[in-house]
Amino acid sequence: MGGAPGAAATGAPDGVLGGLVSRTLTAARHGPMGVMLRVAAMAVAAIGASWIHRVNDPGVLCPLRALTGIPCPMCGGTTVFIELGSGRPGQAVLANPVALTGAIAVAAAPLGLGRRWWALQPKTRAWMLGTALVGSELWQLVRLGILRV
């Protein structure tokens, strides 16, 4: 097997392409370049989802909502990316503000947000995530007309 010593042990790919992938993944974990790479990947995914949705509308993707009619807390997450990919940020916020906030947090993590998140006590992280999921579920129930306010 050719390649760098220890490449097989670490699972790293061999060759020029493997080195490029390795450097890109390392850059995606740190600093402004990481943010740019993450935002670029999300933009490509959003435009792709928007295009697929426009060409062939798959309908409701959430299994819970398809079976029960009740949305899960992350319902609207795909719609967030479809709306962003279609150039409608306002509609993306209305679809699921929690999913949009999560995507922004993932994109900004290389700037130090990730370290701050993991520095929190596990109980604090659990409360924050739980509160966000309950808020998101209430948002979805109101948005889809199941819960009247």
Task: Output the keywords.
mainly alpha, 149 residues
Given the helix and strand composition, which structural class is it?
Answer: mainly alpha
Q: Could you describe the largest sheet, including whether it forms a barrel?
A: none
Silhouette: globular
β-sheet strand percentage: under 5%
What is the H-and-E element order? Answer: HHHHHHHHH
- List the total number of helices: 9
Total count of strands: 0
Radius of gyration: 19 Å
Q: Could you characterize the architecture of this molecule?
A:
By secondary structure, this protein is an all-alpha fold. Helix content is 70%, strand content 0%. The protein is built from nine helices and no strands. α3 (31-55) packs antiparallel against α7 (97-108).
List the helices and strands and how they pair.
Elements (H helix, E strand, L loop, with lengths): L6 H4 L4 H13 L3 H25 L7 H6 L8 H9 L3 H7 L1 H12 L4 H7 L2 H22 L6
Q: Summary?
A:
The protein has 149 residues and is mainly alpha-helical.
